Amino acid sequence: MAVHLPGAYEFMRSLNRNVLISIVLSVLVTLSLFASTFNGSVRPAYAANNYVVSSLNDIGSGSLRDAITQVNGGAGGDTITFSVTGTILLNSTLPDLSKNVTITGPGASLLTIDGSNANRLVWIAGNVIVNLSGLTITHFTTNLNISAIANDGILSVRDVVFSNNISKNVN
């Protein structure tokens, strides 16, 4: 069944080619002015954040624990980097990683995360993607069939040294 709009065809045919070109140009100029008004200042609905670990402390502002908490509170896809070198001595397990994140250390010889022979470093939740690089993970001990990292997600590891981590299978 065809819908007929009386006069529509005749109206379109009656439009002069110059009028159509004028309409198209007007629309393009309007869009151009609209776009230049924002000058790139419009932030998309989601933009990844970079959290910088600026402290070797286990807790507090600028700590790795604080950065993970920030990532977990966002949309995911964020990055954690480090402006410090040395050893982060943890007193307890870090918060679970529940959002996609890239954790990039300054180098395995420059940054160590030391678990004080207690618990695991972190648990990666299912369907979470974690990219880990540039650090050493040492002295984590568990009584489970896991060691430093419990992974139910997708973990990519590059330039990471695992040393002196123990997994005890206690039945």
Q: Would you give an account of this structure?
A:
With 171 residues, the chain is α/β, with parallel strands linked by helices. 22% of the residues lie in helices and 30% in strands. The chain has three helices and eleven strands, in the order ααβαββββββββββ. The chain has helices at 8-14, 17-38, 64-72; strands spanning 50-53, 78-82, 86-89, 101-104, 111-114, 122-124, 129-138, 141-142, 149-151, 154-163, 166-167. The strands form three sheets. Strands 1, 2, 3, 4, 5, 7 and 10 form a seven-stranded parallel β-sheet that branches. Strand 1, helix 3 and strand 2 form a beta-alpha-beta unit. The longest helix is centred in the N-terminal third of the chain and has 22 residues, at 17-38.
